[in-house]
Each structure stands twice: as structure tokens, then as C-alpha cells.
């Protein structure tokens, strides 16, 4: 149904040709895409990949990302400049003014004024062209509300982060969410032993990278030729954020059977298999669709014969005794606000009550995994979020039951948790990657 609506909206978007980019009115197309994202809870990338758009996908992706990173600020700017039309509401017509406002405030040198006046009244355009982001929040007395508007992050999320971070550090983290993290590529250690050989091989393929200073099978991309990353062999390379690649390193060298709870889309299972040639993996996920995606990924990486995929509830693992486990459950994804800014829309709609539901799921999944691990076996708990309730709160609850003990979650990409110093918090402003949390436990 959503894509039928999107198709009709897209046909409308095609009525105006030869804009500033020489294609259809990208503002209309981007507005239709953002309406789908808001209404369907699908990722921006998934919506872009599942539709056929005449405008270049790269251009649409960049434009829509910029709007999502600033949508709250842009709505306030529109109202400040006297715009009284519809904004948001899950319809293209509500997103197009926001897209145009983004171009006026953040792309004013690249987009002609007369183009902006196709979508906004002249007086509104003139006002937006004079505005700077901090002008928009003048007069907002509540400091947390001011930060929420300035960085377009739900206020309840800003409030949760303010419990953990002093004001200057809080704003540093929020500012980091406004920029996409660098691209990281991990390589197959079963094939490459020398990172310099990896750097040279990538260079020959049009990807210029340097070794990560901490993770010995990860490189950070400095420059890539157009389309180069998409041509990398799947059995040698995999694009994965630094904070996600940390999980297999914290697990360390293991043998035997590893349980990978909440496994899809399979990045963790593939990484563990590339680093540990003598393991087999039981990968559990509730979604059949996501497991199909995982199967394809593991086949491309050449490790599918060592991974058994199980459709099921990770809170009731299909195995009784394993040598180690990874638990990377569903979470509020606050650490991904830079990489996937559409998460801001989802968190805004869900509200803070989602934390209670998620933390209960996370605790049940972690406890279930711990009960399957042999005594002395390792469990790595990891999330891509930053709330206390979903991280230290979950781990501490299990510690209090005496099932596990903490050990250092090394190597250190992030910083020590002030609550559980053996565990690490990864913040994007320092670690230059998505945010998250990792703990390493041993079954007693």
C-alpha cells in the first residue's frame, strides 16, 4: 500500500524537469521518500533501494540524509519565517517544504533562489537564506530543548544522554551525530595476515585506506573511487562500522560452538568465522526475511557451511551447551543517529517508554544465552545504543544473580563506563564511529 502511494507521489514529482541538478525536482522525490520512511518505519537506504527513481540515487541519499539530520530545526525555521503550510505528517506535501528549507539554509550557495520559490513563498525563502542554525533556537530557555532543536534529536533522548555526560561533552556527542562516521572495511584474516598487503590490494581496487589503530583486521577509508566499494569481493572484504567490528575482537580467540543471538543480518557471525577457523556458529533470529539476507551474506563471505541458521526466539535458544555466545539484541539504536538519522523519527514516535520494553527483551536474551554457555565460557553483550537502562542496567541485573562475572572488554575502542569500569562505552565524537556499548562476561 505504501509503495502504491509512493508511486503516485513519484509520478507527480516527475512533472517538473530540468532543475538545478538537471533531473526531476529532487525536492518532490525526496519528500515522497521521507514520507514513506516516516510512515513505514523502514530505513532510508531500504526505501531508496526498493524504488526506481529518475534522480540519481546518490544525490537523493545525500539530500534526504541532510534533511533528516536537521528536520526539527528546519520545521522551527519555517515557522519562524512565517510559513503556515503543512509540515511532516507522513505525506510528501508535508516534507517538501522541509527539504526546500534545508537547501535554503545548508545549500544556499548551490541552489538558485528562484528554484526555492517553486516550493516556498518568496518572503519565507528570503528569511531562510538569512538564518543561521543558532539563530533558530534563540529565545528557547530550556537548555535541553535548545539542544534537541539545534541537533534535531528527540528531547527525551537528549535528556537521557544528559544524565551520563557533562554539558560540553553532551553537545560534542550530539554534534558528532550530525556527520556520517567514516567508512570502515574489515578484511578476511583467513586470507590476509599483513594489513599493508590489504592496503595495497584495496588501492589497486580504487579504495584508499589506512589501518585502524586498534582493530587488526579493520581499515578506515580515506578516499574511494565511485562504485569501488560495491565491487569488492565479498569473500575478502565487508563494510562494517568500527563499533560493530569490535564485538568479535572482544570475544577473542575461541573454538567449538558459538551462539549468536539476535544474529541477522549476519555481520557478527561472519566476523567470528573469519577470525576463528575452528568454530561453528548457531545463529538465531526471529525474522525469516532477515535470516534469508544473512544466508546470502554468509554465502558471499564463504562461511555459510560453518553457520547454522535458526528461525526462533533468542530468549529460548535451540542449544543447551555452547562454548561462547554473542548477544547483540534489538535496542533503541541511539548510537546510530549519525549513520541512520531516520532513527530520530522512530524514536520520536516511540517515546521513552520503548526503553522499558527493550531492556526487558535484552535482559531475557542475555540471561538465556548465559544459561547455555559452559562454565568458564565467554559471553559478549553489545548494543548500538547509549542508555544506562539498555546497557549497564541489563548487565548489572545479571551480575546480581551470580550467573556471570565481568572481565575487561578489551581491546578498547571506547572509554570505560563510569558504572561498570570493565565495560566500554563508545561515543562517536572520540571513537569516530557509531555509538554503542560492549561488555564481556564469563559464566561461573
Question: What does it look like?
Answer:
- Keywords: Methyltransferase, RNA-binding, S-adenosyl-L-methionine, Transferase.
- It comes from Pyrolobus fumarii (strain DSM 11204 / 1A).
- Pfam families: Methyltr_RsmB-F, RsmF-B_ferredox.
- The termini are far apart.
- The protein has 20 helices and 13 strands.
- The protein is globular.
- A hairpin with a 6-residue loop joins strand 2 and strand 3.
- It is of the alpha/beta class.
- The strands form two sheets. Strands 5, 6, 7, 8, 9, 10, 11, 12 and 13 form a nine-stranded mixed sheet that branches. A four-stranded antiparallel sheet has the order 2-3-1-4.
- Residues 1-23 have low confidence and may be disordered.
Question: How is the topology of this model organized?
Answer:
Elements: H1 2-13, H2 26-40, H3 44-50, H4 57-68, H5 71-80, H6 92-106, H7 113-116, H8 122-130, H9 133-136, H10 143-151, H11 155-162, H12 167-176, E1 184-187, H13 195-204, E2 207-211, E3 218-224, E4 237-239, H14 242-251, E5 256-261, H15 267-275, E6 279-285, H16 288-300, E7 307-311, E8 322-327, H17 343-350, H18 353-372, E9 373-383, H19 392-400, E10 404-407, E11 415-416, E12 424-426, H20 428-431, E13 436-443
Parallel strand pairs: 5-6, 5-8, 6-7, 8-9
Antiparallel strand pairs: 1-3, 1-4, 2-3, 9-13, 10-13, 11-12, 12-13
Helix pairs in contact: 1-2, 2-4, 2-6, 3-4, 5-6, 10-11, 14-15, 18-19
Amino acid at each position: 500500500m505504501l509503495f502504491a502511494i509512493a508511486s503516485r507521489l513519484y509520478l507527480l514529482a516527475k512533472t517538473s524537469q530540468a532543475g538545478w541538478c538537471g533531473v526531476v525536482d529532487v525536492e518532490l522525490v525526496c519528500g515522497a521518500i521521507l514520507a514513506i520512511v516516516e510512515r513505514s518505519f523502514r530505513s532510508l537506504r531500504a526505501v531508496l533501494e526498493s524504488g526506481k527513481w529518475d534522480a540519481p540515487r546518490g544525490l537523493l541519499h545525500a539530500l534526504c540524509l541532510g534533511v533528516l539530520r536537521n528536520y526539527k530545526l528546519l520545521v522551527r525555521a519555517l515557522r519562524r519565517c512565517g510559513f503556515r503550510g503543512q509540515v511532516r505528517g507522513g505525506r510528501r506535501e508535508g516534507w517538501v517544504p522541509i527539504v526546500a528549507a534545508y537547501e535554503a539554509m545548508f545549500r544556499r550557495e548551490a541552489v538558485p533562489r528562484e528554484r526555492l520559490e517553486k516550493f516556498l513563498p518568496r518572503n519565507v525563502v528570503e528569511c531562510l537564506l538569512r538564518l543561521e542554525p543558532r539563530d533558530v533556537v534563540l529565545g528557547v530557555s530550556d537548555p535541553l530543548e535548545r539542544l534537541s532543536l539545534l541537533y534535531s534529536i528527540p528531547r527525551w533522548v537528549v535528556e537521557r544522554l544528559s544524565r551520563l555526560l557533562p554539558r560540553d561533552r553532551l553537545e560534542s556527542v550530539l554534534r558528532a551525530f550530525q556527520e556520517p562516521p567514516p567508512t570502515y572495511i574489515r578484511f578476511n584474516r583467513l586470507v590476509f595476515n599483513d594489513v599493508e598487503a590489504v592496503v595495497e590490494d584495496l588501492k589497486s581496487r580504487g579504495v584508499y585506506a589506512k589501518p585502524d589503530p586498534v582493530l587488526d583486521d579493520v581499515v578506515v577509508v580515506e578516499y574511494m573511487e565511485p562504485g569501488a566499494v560495491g565491487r569488492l569481493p565479498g569473500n575478502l572484504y565487508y563494510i562494517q562500522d568500527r563499533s560493530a567490528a569490535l564485538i568479535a575482537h572482544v570475544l577473542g580467540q575461541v573454538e567449538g560452538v558459538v551462539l549468536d543471538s539476535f544474529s541477522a543480518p549476519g555481520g557478527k557471525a561472519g566476523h567470528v568465522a573469519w577470525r576463528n577457523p575452528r568454530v561453528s556458529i548457531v545463529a538465531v533470529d526471529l525474522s525469516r526475511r532477515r535470516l534469508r539476507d544473512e544466508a546470502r551474506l554468509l554465502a558471499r563471505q564463504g562461511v555459510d557451511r560453518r553457520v547454522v541458521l535458526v528461525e526462533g526466539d533468542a530468549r529460548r535458544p535451540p542449544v543447551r551447551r555452547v562454548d561462547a555466545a554473542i548477544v547483540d539484541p534489538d535496542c533503541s539504536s541511539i548510537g546510530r543517529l549519525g549513520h541512520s538519522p531516520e532513527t530520530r523519527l522512530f524514536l520520536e514516535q516511540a517515546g521513552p517508554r520503548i526503553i522499558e520494553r527493550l531492556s526487558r527483551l535484552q535482559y531475557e536474551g542475555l540471561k538465556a544465552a548465559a544459561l547455555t554457555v559452559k562454565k568458564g565460557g565467554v559471553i559478549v553483550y553489545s548494543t548500538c545504543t547509549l542508555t544506562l537502562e539498555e546497557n549497564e542496567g541489563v548487565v548489572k541485573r545479571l551480575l546480581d544473580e551470580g550467573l556471570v562475572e565481568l572481565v575487561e572488554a578489551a581491546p578498547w575502542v571506547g572509554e570505560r563506563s563510569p558504572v561498570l569500569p570493565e565495560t566500554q562505552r563508545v561515543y562517536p565524537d572520540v571513537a569516530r564511529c557509531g555509538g554503542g556499548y560492549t561488555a564481556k562476561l564469563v559464566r561461573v
